Amino acid sequence: MTDQAASLRVIRGEGRDAALPRRERAIAVTGGKGGVGKSTIAVGLATAYARGGSRTLLVDADLGMADLNLLLGVAPSRSLLDALTGAPVDDIVVQAHGISLLPALNGSYALATMGETGRRRTLELVEHLAGRFDTVVVDIAAGIGATQATFAAAAADTVVVVNPEPLSMADAYACLKVLVSHHGMRHAYVVPNRVTSQGQADDIVGRLGDLVTRFLDLRLTPLPAVPSDPAVSEAAQLGVPLLIQRPDSPAARGIARVARALDAVAAPDERIAATRGFWRRHLTAASGDAP
After folding, report:
1. Total Cβ atoms within 10 A of residue 190
2. pTM
């Protein structure tokens, strides 16, 4: 069910425009459908926390179709695939705009089709890195396969991005259904993205919330909406995070509100406890497929 009491004010971005505190966070950004803006939200959240002084790691978990390097304007010479084949993971991470990026690889069949052993090793690598950071943001690939669900369920907080397209709603629900039924998830956040009005955002949250309430044992907390904004594509073309390139644009302000609201409605003590070793509870989950 939707957690309306906890988020009645933050969904509209109301309340004090507070600075982001430095604390431990582990956030997965998912949504099921491709093209709903998951990567934009992931980069935006990472930028917001990094600009607030948080040591921030951004993980590209769209393993075979990676694009976070393009949004950050970097061209890594190595990727997660190198780390999985023996290269030190410390040598893979690249720096951009105050963010540390663990890049994947575009067009990699090996990463896109990795099995249980590969997923386990990837989670171990991220956990190895996570201890050095205050914030870890994971950008999840489209789809509801074992790899996507494993990474989406691994973080302390899971954010589901939904836009006004009907298929986006259906895929977001399918994503949540898999996370509940196969990973025991009991809470998630929803961000209405590319909306043209608050009414449209409320409609998205209401319809998804109704489905969740009827069919899933899940608490769904709405976060502030991010408006449709041409500045998003402009920043992507330049390879500069939106919150740096156009910090006063409507979408940048919306993402900043999401970052603040996520901190406001999540319980810090629970988040810190979950983040310390937040990948470990998934390392023993077997999917039964080949490595």
Report:
1. 27
2. 0.88
